[in-house]
Specification:
The chain is mainly alpha-helical and 213 residues long. The chain has helices at 4-20, 22-29, 37-51, 60-74, 79-93, 102-120, 130-145, 150-167, 191-208, and strands at residues 2-3, 99-100. The protein is 66% helix and 2% strand. Helix 1 packs across helix 2 (22-29), helix 1 (4-20) crosses helix 9 and helix 3 (37-51) packs across helix 4 (60-74).
């Protein structure tokens, strides 16, 4: 089982990881975007940290929806709506829950993914965050269907997200700011796929550190 405390720790750890990788993410964004992805993600997760103390005792759905609203209101450009919707829709999918089963975890991440697809009007191979999240969700679903334990399933999810992130390098960007540079987007790793991978990897590490997972 993944507990409410795990979700809170995931958000806290994500804030640390994205802060540590802010310059790296901005460097990835520089040749194909506005050179602000790392700055924006760091700002957004700092905002989540300011809101978290007020909802740590609430259900998982409320915690995630609060995180989503913090991102929507603090992150500029497309990032706020996209990442915000991920957490908002994930939160709606597990409203009222204090712990998550394997099915709940898949439902949470799949709902977040579908929210991103809906808002961004994007699909696989458009060179976006979807290219990391989609294969991750599918790998997690398959791992649980094969009877894998939570930690092993999350490792497989993380591996799939990493591959999806790397697979964006040769892609031509079809959505977002990167699509404006056309052919010059080829050969660059997508910053959104990278931050999404970091967030999912942090989920795996958070759960793995909990002996009861």
């Amino acid at each position: 089982m993944i507990t409410k405390d795990d979700i809170v720790e995931w958000l806290k750890a994500s804030a640390v990881v994205l802060g540590e990788n802010a310059e790296y993410l901005t460097d990835l964004d520089s040749p194909i975007g506005d050179a602000d992805h790392g700055i924006n993600m760091d700002r957004g997760f700092k905002k989540i940290m300011s809101k978290l103390p007020g909802v740590e005792d609430k259900d998982i759905g409320t915690i995630l929806k609060t995180a989503g609203m913090a991102l929507v209101t603090s992150v500029g450009g497309a990032g706020g709506p996209l990442y915000g919707t991920f957490y908002l829709d994930a939160g709606k999918a597990v409203a009222g829950k204090g712990e998550l089963s394997a099915d709940d975890l898949v439902l949470l991440l799949d709902a977040g993914l579908k929210g991103v697809v809906r808002i961004g009007k994007t699909r696989l191979c458009d060179k976006t965050m979807v290219d990391a999240i989609h294969p991750a969700v599918e790998a997690l679903r398959e791992a649980f269907a094969d009877g894998k334990g939570t930690v092993e399933a999350l490792h497989l999810m993380t591996d799939a997200a990493h591959k999806g992130m790397k697979d964006t390098i040769p892609m031509l960007a079809k959505k977002g700011r990167a699509s404006y540079v056309g052919e010059r987007s080829i050969g660059h790793q997508d910053p959104g796929a990278t931050s999404s991978y970091l967030i999912l990897k942090t989920l795996m590490e958070t759960v793995e550190s909990n002996p009861s997972a």
